[in-house]
Specification:
Length: about 300
Amino acid sequence: MSLDATLTRYQAQISAALERALPANTLAPTRLHEAMRYAVLGPGKRVRPVLVYATGQVFGCPLARLDSSAVAVELIHAYSLVHDDLPAMDNDDLRRGRPTCHRAYDEATAILAGDALQALAFFVLASDRALDELGGRPLEMLRVLADASGSVGMAGGQAIDLAAVGQRISLTELETMHLHKTGALIRASVHLGYLAGGGDSTMHQARLDRYARNVGLAFQVQDDILDVEGETGTIGKPQGSDQDRDKPTYPNLLGVGAAKDTARRLCADAIDALDCFGTSADPLRWLAEYIVKRDR
């Protein structure tokens, strides 16, 4: 299968799974449930759930057994975007080419929607009886997701990001920030795919984590490049917003050319980490290349 066919297949799978997991917008409190669905079901790349599916399928796992993990990481991601866009944080009006959740609804509803999406992520994962055959792994999966979401992961990365606005930081500090803010949930996506997929090799787990670490950083480097070179209508958010807020980015520290070289190096390192796997890991290889070549 090609990358396009693989993405289409995985994106259709996660769209159906998210639709099943989210409360109906006719269920009270309807405004809250409408906001939750608005935040999750809008256009998006679905990179994190796609990584869950692609990793699980390295081990021959059926897609259906990976649904709860894929849904959980996407719900956590969606909640983080809702909260990051709030006036108290990044104060964004546009996300994925549409008004942000707090603009489409209101700030209080957006906060509650984010809270509810985070809770729903753990409920979906904890409620999947199909994972029981994996022994103690469901509990480990909950720990992985919680660790990636909290103060030593994504939330901590956002705190570092907010504190860095207007500051001059080193490349090492920038990398640390993004290993938390963006990289933690991407690494968790691959780890969850490994666990749900039935992977049982310490070496395979280490190689996949190396892959995910590089892909997570490459994703952020490319995001930073798109903030400089992308077009608002394509990237779905205001072009140049990071520069307007005086946020530290890879192009600011390295220059655009060196930032592109960094993204390519990270992509190559990610693909190299998969050399112990056969063709079943091709979707992961394609995704690494897609992440650094995407225009949105």
